[in-house]
Write a structure and sequence with these properties.
This protein is mostly helical and 227 residues long. Helix content is 52%, strand content 0%. The protein has helices at residues 22-27, 49-63, 65-72, 85-90, 97-112, 114-119, 130-140, 148-152, 159-171, 178-190, 198-216. The longest helix is centred in the C-terminal third of the chain and has 19 residues, at 198-216. The chain is globular, with a radius of gyration of 22 Å.
Length: 227
Amino acid sequence: KSWMDNIPVEFKKGMFCWGNKEKSLKAVDFPNVRKWSVADDDWQLPENWEEIFLEGFKERLGKYRSFQLFMDICVRCGACADKCHFFIGGGDPKNMPVLRAELLRSIYRRYFTAPGKALGKLAGGRELTYDVLKELWYYAYQCTECRRCSVFCPYGIDTAEITILARELLNLLGLNIDWIAGPVANCYRTGNHLGLQPHTIKDSFDMFIEDIEAYTGVKVDPSFNRK
């Protein structure tokens, strides 16, 4: 079937990112704080989640001229396809940068272009359904923002920027991953992404000092709590 047929994503165990923890969203005042699991059918979204997503989409189209441009000018030549390590490693067509971005473009066409509003799927537009949202979440976080795809794009489209903005839209609904939300919350609480307390950092330095002395014979004496 065509990917436009809205085939639901299969969340296989061990093949998707962990959703953010409740405490991580709460620490940095992110939206829709709640306990949820990616494996659940119900992701506990706000009742007006479609409106929140589309309003956020509209706002960013007006704010970033590049975003509007990147939504319109892709000719789907596929020059970026074999440059992505996610696609090369897994072979999933939706992990080609062009198609990962197309997941968001299809929503853009349906709600923000005249042909899409009138003709829907015939003009490459897709309805924003629960399954489409889950599909977008699944693939938007399978990207390390390395921007290699952008280097090879003949139109200069920064596909990584599209992925970043897709994540922004998902985050409006409290849909993040623990690998991102957790370190952000740790930075807010402790000043470092690992959440290390001062005594732990001091212990780490003591270990480094011993290693330096073992390798070089030089005993260094760093100071702490000094500007």
